[in-house]
């Protein structure tokens, strides 16, 4: 546990899910500051393919390499709080990610305005519009993660909605306990 919160110590990751790119950010083990990691090309397998997408495999690698305690996935909502198509896509991505990184928890956190905030920060730092596109997703992931870190410190709990690995939930129900660890293999 962290000294000032009831949150277990360990690096945290955040993911900003887009239709083309996925931004990735990480924190230090004490959860003080979020830093950019990478912008990944979104890999969407064909309908009949049964493989781990390359972007998910990279996130799994980062979770394992860093010993991540939790993965936060940005949950885009309308300003009214309502969910739309982007929200459903992020939720589906989070469920697949939860299956791949289990037993590390995955949580959906409100990301309203994270991309706008990221664009403003990049513009303030002197990045042109063309150069912003290359890093805006990881900058948005930093905004998402810093929000989550600040919320952890303020409340002493992990923010957001837990994402249940639906497959594991089914396995636990059908078999009376966990089956395997659900981790994707990274080659």
UniProtKB/TrEMBL annotation:
Keywords: Cytoplasm, Hydrolase, Nuclease, Ribosome biogenesis. Its EC number is 3.1.-.-. InterPro entries: RNaseH-like_sf, YqgF, YqgF/RNaseH-like_dom, YqgF/RNaseH-like_dom_sf. It is found in: Cytoplasm. Residues 10-118 form the YqgF/RNase H-like domain. SUPFAM superfamilies: Ribonuclease H-like. Residues 153-187 are annotated as: Disordered. Its main location: cytoplasm. Pfam families: RuvX. NCBIfam families: RNAse_H_YqgF (TIGR00250). HAMAP family: Nuclease_YqgF. PANTHER family: POLYNUCLEOTIDYL TRANSFERASE, RIBONUCLEASE H-LIKE SUPERFAMILY PROTEIN. This is Putative pre-16S rRNA nuclease. It comes from Cellulomonas septica. The gene is ruvX.
């Amino acid at each position: 546990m962290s000294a000032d919160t009831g949150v277990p110590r360990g690096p945290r990751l955040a993911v900003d899910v887009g239709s083309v790119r996925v931004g990735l950010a990480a924190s230090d083990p004490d959860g003080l500051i979020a830093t950019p990691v990478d912008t990944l090309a979104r890999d969407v397998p064909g309908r009949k393919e049964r493989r781990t997408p390359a972007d998910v495999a990279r996130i799994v690698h980062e979770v394992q390499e860093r010993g991540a305690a939790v993965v936060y996935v940005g949950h885009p909502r309308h300003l009214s709080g309502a969910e739309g198509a982007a929200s459903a896509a992020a939720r589906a991505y989070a469920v697949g990610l939860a299956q791949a990184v289990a037993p590390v928890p995955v949580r959906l956190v409100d990301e309203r305005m994270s991309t706008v905030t990221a664009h403003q920060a990049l513009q303030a730092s002197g990045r042109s519009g063309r150069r912003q596109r290359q890093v805006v997703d990881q900058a948005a992931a930093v905004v998402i993660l810093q929000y989550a870190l600040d919320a952890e410190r303020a409340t002493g709990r992990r923010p957001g909605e837990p994402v249940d690995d639906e497959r594991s939930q089914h396995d636990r129900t059908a078999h009376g306990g966990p089956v395997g660890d659900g981790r994707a293999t990274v080659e």
